[in-house]
Design a protein that fits this description.
One of its GO terms (biological process) is response to molecule of fungal origin. Pfam families: 2OG-FeII_Oxy, DIOX_N. With 371 residues, the chain is α+β, with helices and mostly antiparallel strands. Helices cover 26% and strands 18% of the residues. The chain has 10 helices and 14 strands. The chain is globular, with a radius of gyration of 19 Å. 45% of the residues are buried.
């Protein structure tokens, strides 16, 4: 991944690793991780309300997949996909690899700690410093090669980890490109409209990061938060979650809806940069991760973005006299720096004007990690 993205992410404040507890060994919820009701439930949600609607599920092999994806992007900002081309064997391997990593003793994981100004490595969620309480999770971020940290974790057996990560990232990049053209095609965008798509629209120059997340069983899940509400700074994020529920998305700014794990399916959510590209037609979705008392949850997120030097702005085909551009041009590097400093104000800070005709910027709650 180009150094400019890495440099931008380094500017995001993080907690030092001495604050990281071994959550697998904690029997009582510590005050450092105890969220008050008002802090945890900023948006109204009763348990039954969360299940009134279900996130769209799109079969990529269907003839009308593009139409279905476009509708899901405009109305939800998130959807699940099946028949996506990623083998069950590879999904099993990446899940097993994540479990292997997070099951290491804490002293071993800390050898691969993300430095205070670093990007890759083991640590607490990068958004932790924006909240008064810590989150019930641990993560491992990969930007570029995982070799250095893998050697610290498994000095004599690091190739297995690196090989799986490399294979997973390769297949995710292909899927991300496919999803990009389906989504953009639903908006009437062609390869001729997007110069940075590269040869044959392959998006070969795009940047990406991989985020592995672990949410151990929690003694008091109602008072804890796995990952606080946020949107992603990417163009889009592809998430694999194990068979334990925990991901929730905010629906219409009023209630949380659970995204249940479906065998073989992947979750795709719209990030802030696609929100900008689409001039607000495809909103980035606010989401969070909750925890439970008995089951461990693991997720693997692939965050896809443009080349670091490309300025992202509303596509010309989506702009006219009645629908002026809502956002100024911004590179991913610049946007990451804005989020690192202003967190939930980032999207509004690159906005040029108020949305017209009922569409546009509906989510100003932004961050840089996914659940």
């Amino acid at each position: 991944m180009p150094s400019r993205i890495s440099d931008s992410m380094r500017g995001h404040p993080v907690y030092f690793q001495h604050k990281q507890l071994d959550l697998n060994l904690v029997k009582e919820l510590p005050d450092s991780h105890a969220w008050t009701t008002s802090l945890k439930d900023e948006y109204p949600c009763g348990g039954h309300l969360c299940n009134l609607e279900t996130v769209p599920v799109v079969d990529l092999a269907a003839k009308n997949a593009q139409e279905l994806l476009g509708h899901a992007c405009k109305t939800w900002g998130v959807f699940q996909v099946k028949n996506h081309g990623i083998s069950k064997n590879l999904l099993d391997k990446i899940e097993s690899t994540g479990k292997r990593l997070f099951s290491l003793p804490m002293h071993q994981k800390l050898k691969a700690s993300r430095s205070p100004d670093g990007v890759s490595g083991y640590g607490v969620p990068r958004i932790s410093s924006f909240f008064p309480k810590l989150m019930w999770s641990e993560g491992f971020t990969i930007v570029g090669s995982p070799l250095e940290h893998a050697r610290q974790l498994w000095p004599h057996d690091y190739n297995k980890f690196c090989d799986v990560i490399q294979e997973y990232e390769k297949e995710m990049r292909k899927l991300a490109g496919k999803l990009m053209w389906l989504i953009l095609g639903s908006l009437g965008i062609t390869e001729a409209d997007l110069e940075w798509a590269g040869p044959e629209g392959s998006f070969e120059g795009g940047c990406a990061a991989l985020q592995l997340n672990s949410y151990p069983a929690c003694p008091e899940p109602d008072r804890a938060m796995g990952l606080a509400p946020h949107t992603d700074s990417s163009i889009l994020t592809i998430l694999h979650q194990n068979n334990t529920s925990g991901l929730q998305v905010l629906r219409n700014g009023t209630r949380w809806v659970t995204v249940p794990p479906l065998p073989g399916a992947l979750v795709v959510n719209i990030g802030d940069l696609l929100h900008i590209l689409s001039n607000g037609l495809c909103p980035s979705v606010l989401h969070r991760a909750i925890v439970n008392r008995t089951q461990h949850r693991l997720s693997v997120a692939y965050l896809y973005g443009p080349p670091s030097s490309v300025k992202i702005s509303p596509l010309q085909k989506l702009v006219d006299q009645g629908h002026p551009p809502l956002y100024r041009p911004v590179t991913w590097s610049e946007y990451l720096r804005t989020k690192a400093k202003h967190f939930d104000k980032a999207l509004s800070l690159v906005r040029l004007c108020a949305p017209l005709y009922g569409f546009g910027d509906t989510n100003d709650h932004n961050s840089v990690t996914v659940g």
